[in-house]
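SUBJECT: A protein chain and its fold
Encoding: whole-number codes for local backbone shapes
Chain under study, with its fold:
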Amino acid sequence: MIRLTSSKPRATRADATRNRDQLLEVATRVLASPDGEPSLRAIAREAGVGIGTLYRHFPTRESLVEAVYRDQVGRLTNGAQDLLASEAPAVAMRRWMDLFGDWVATKNGMVDTLPALIESGAVGHAQTRAELLNAISAILDAGRAAGDLRPDVTAEEIAASLIGIFTVAHQSGHAVTADRLLDILLDGLRPQRHP
């Protein structure tokens, strides 16, 4: 008698999903530290799992970095809509700027691996840029419609401003903080009130 097996993939066990989520969360936090790329063992240890569990989910450093990178980009793109659903556009823009700062900080621990992923095509720089600009545009459009944000500012200008702010604020020796600069940027994005 021939037994037919289902071609459906097995569902991921709850503990495996939990372990993967924990590894992503810890890797994101550890990669954001200014100490450079951490060891995979350190990430596994901090996540409370064995190195074998890490390798089951992420067989290489590149696969872990790619997963963290994609997760962060997803948080940015989905974050724009989530923030707009619960906040006024100007507030959503300011909170999204903080999310962008978290993404930039996470890239600290990817400085050796990320360029190789971009070069190999595993991470699409142009696609990421388009997704981020779309997220900024969604907030800008809502802000324009509400009269909350200036109509003459582009997503590209905001992205360039954010990159400049986080580059300057993260250099040692600067007395300015990213929060202060982001507040100033948001003030500049508000429509001018003429008496």
In short: The mean pLDDT is 85.
